[in-house]
Amino acid sequence: MRHTIDWTHPDYLDADKLDEEMRRVFDICHGCRRCFNLCDTFPRLFDLIDAAPTGELDSVASADFAPPVEACTLCDLCYMSKCPYTPPHEFNIDFPHLMLRYRAMEFAAGKVPFSTQILANTDLAGTVGKTVAPLANWATKEGNKITRPLLEKTLGIHREAAVPQFHAKTLVRQTREPLSLNKAAPAYGRKVVIYATCYGNYNNPNIGLATRKVLAHNGVETQVIYPGCCAMPLLEQGNIAGVAEAAKRVAGELRPWIDQGYEVIALVPSCALMLKSEWPLILPNDENVNLLGHSTKDITEYMVSLAKGPGLVEGIKPLTEGVTVHIACHARAQNMGQKAAELLRLIPDIDLQVIERCSGHGGAWGLKVENFDIALKVGKPVAQQALKNQNRLVLSECPLAATHIRQGMEKLDSNFVSENAHPIEIFAHAYGL
Question: Alpha-carbon distance 411 to 121, whole Å?
């Protein structure tokens, strides 16, 4: 039972009322501290209070609240897995959405730099990037000593941070022709719309291509749609009106497909979380948004539902090597269980190690020059565990988390070579597709 985000109410951006609420919540967190090891937000907050003259929140200046807020990646894990005071508890704590409210106030006050806002426009970056993909990928490649310092200075992207590469042919462009369906499959007759997501469309179409092949092999008809980004990057910056605009556009374009009996699957967990949870909380009275939220599944969630329902087609072959899979924070925040691990366990005799801990990336947050080293520090336990597993294949439903884990592993052992992939890509490989 999570409360809606009352972002259009005049009190939402009232600085005095926000400060009063932050002091109420921070004081409760100070007395609890169950969340101290989730991320860098809570250590910053507790260190701030502990260093105050009285050792209590009453002697902390409100101007000093910014560092804890800036460290929040809106992963929702404190709300979903640690906080004992979430609704319906009378304390009524929703820490991530309180951080969002602070950022919304900062955004409304014009305190988000233009260079930071540009990073959130993934459709602009994708449209330009696909047009000049070889040049863009050269310029953004790790280790480019000519362009990366320039990107660091102009856009604030840390020169060592891995950034998504671009494909000249988007997922939508590559999936215009229908695939032949396996009419003997138990799930034959089902149909889904694949919401490509900006990352799946512009940066890694292979996730969507593998998804289509696996679903067609199991008799499921697919349509690939990309009306625009889910706007998670805008949410991270507090631009809630921008998120609402994107939600209305995407939900409106997907509505006719849902009315025709299609289910919706998202290729990236952050995007699935937006469709399922954040959008309905921002636009609780929008019929299209609510219908889309109820009709959406993460791709791993959908595949497991097929396996437990009508069943999957036989013929899945064992892998020739072990696999480490990371359960992404935004997959956990969907409260659906470890669906990536459940999917991979359908592969016979799989040697699988599961890591369920924050990678430290946090979307665009982990790319920024002021956050990259902190992101590596937060994700170090995950990188250490992945190295200990000694599996070349390191998977995550979140492609940005997977890349960040790979970088963390390289920092610890530059000789170890790993390969990242989405679980559905490995499942397609196990099918021989």
Answer: 30
- Using one digit for the tens of pLDDT, what is the confidence trace for 271-305? 999 999 999 999 999 999 999 999 999 999 999 99
Residues pairing with 58 in the sheet: none
Single pTM value for the model:
0.93
pLDDT at 1 over 90: no
Find where tokens 């002021």 sit: 370
| Sheet architecture: strand order including 191-195 | 221-225, 191-195, 263-266, 296-298
Helix (H, G, I), strand (E, B) or coil at 394: strand
Query: Average pLDDT, stretch 301-310?
Result: 97
Whole-number Cα distances in Å, 369 to 159, 163, 178, 306: 8, 13, 43, 42
Residue that the structure tokens 């070889």 belong to? 134
Strands (E), 327-412: 352-355, 393-396
Whether 277 and 333 have beta carbons less than 8 Å apart is answered as yes
The one-letter amino acid code at 83 reads C
Q: What percent of the chain is helix, strand and coil (3-state, nearest 5)? A: 55, 10, 40
Task: Answer for the pair 394, 324: CB distance below 8 angstroms, yes or no.
Answer: yes
The residue behind tokens 């972002």 is: 7
| Sign (positive or negative) of CA dihedral 179, 184, 189, 195 | negative
DSSP letters, 167-203, are: -SS-HHHHT-SPPPP-TTSTTTT-EEEEE--HIIIII
- Per-position b or e across 183-208, b if 16+ CB within 10 A of its CB: eebbbeebbbbbbbbbbbbbbbbbbb
Of 65, 78, 88, 87, nearest to 32 (Cα)? 78
Read off the tokens for 302.
């959908």
Q: Which residue has the tokens 């097929």?
A: 306
Pinpoint the alpha helices (H) of 202-348: 205-217, 232-236, 240-259, 269-273, 279-282, 287-295, 299-308, 329-332, 339-344
